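dumping this here so i dont lose it again. seq + smiles for pyridoxal-5'-phosphate
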Amino acid sequence: MTITDRVPTPAIDPAAELTADSPAPALRTELPGPIAAEIIARDDAVTSPSLTRLYPLVAKRGRGLVIEDVDGNRFLDFNAGIAVVAAGHGHPEVNAAIHAQVDDILHYCSSDFYLPSYADLSVKLAEIAPMSGPTKSFLCNSGTEAVEAALKLARHRTGRPNVIAFLGGFHGRSLGSLSLTASKVRQRAGFGITVPGSFHAPYWDPYNPDALTGADYIEQVLFTKLTDASDVAAIFVEAVQGEGGYIVPPAEWLTELRELCDRHGIVLVVDEVQSGIGRTGTMWACRPADGPGIEPDIMCIGKGLASGLPLAGIIAKAELMDWEPGGHGSTFGGNPVACAAAVATIDLVERELADNARTVGAHLLAALESLAAEQPKITQVRGRGLMIGIDLPDHDAAEALQEAAFRRGLLTLTCGERTLRLAPPLVVTIDQADTAVAIIRDALND
Ligand SMILES: Cc1ncc(COP(=O)(O)O)c(C=O)c1O
């Protein structure tokens, strides 16, 4: 196979400009187009069947919310690469930071040596951490590694064996984090024993707010029947449950969890891998705009942190992050290029993107609520900022809507049992939000 065999002839003029203002959606072929179909066929033959590949999108380039596929079709991106590309595709400030760092150095193992962008980012994280006292951070590459780090740190500091997480929660797929994940049974099927001593409680239920869940369930059921509180190292919770269906619990639900941890000397780990970095309209979902929120002992971050480069980590209260050199580390974790992208991203989120997420998110939620009032197929709309879920009668209906949106040039993704999630880059405009709602309305009416 030659290079020319491998790289299909582009159907689009590579010189044609793509900007964040390029009209989208703008479809010019059947989906998938001929080049996309060829790539998909090659890919499917040699890649792991565990990859879900929800619809035949073969993304080639992106600007803002506009994704162009290999055949020149333009889509409106309400996925952000699964809640990742916080600053939008190709943001000039993020790209400039990346290019400058690429020209300096690509890698020198941040676990063993010092690098300026690692220090810059860690200082920034200490500044924006949602904890009152001093904090320290540890950087890695993916959300699952961040959860592993939190799990190890909590066990190490408490000397306790057990952990508690929530049904519907997603924390990753490596064996430690998988022990906490309780999202879809397929993610566990056939993988044998996960970490012993991992227990689950029900998350707040948006259809039955009075159900026994959260701190009450842990106190009344887990602590009386399954584990003594003094054996529990940590409780892991998503401030807004992501993969479980974009569920926003009331403020007091999280406060009660904080109080429970304080009563029993348990480390509260707030997983903000999906909800953090401005996505819900404030830097962290555990610190909402309309109340004090809660203070985590350890927080997991990832996804949007570097606007698309792989970077994740934990931020912990300084007195808690007390482990020996060599106790934890990573060859690639805290890569300098990813750190430079993260510093630029956080700067943008602080300056304008969290505010934009709050404003456009509120507009989008209101528009979807109006749609729900006229469209009986929608059973519930909920969310905060740009983390919005639309519930349909069942999973098939949610998948059908996802597919119908794709056919109309809108990129979305299902989550939970029957939810279509909207998680666009934080640069989304009111006009783009209105376009997305119009497409969803049209798809539902069809
Ligand atoms: C809340 C949460 N935690 C952890 C993870 C795992 O992140 P990663 O896929 O980067 O390992 C995810 C991924 O969706 C997530 O949503």
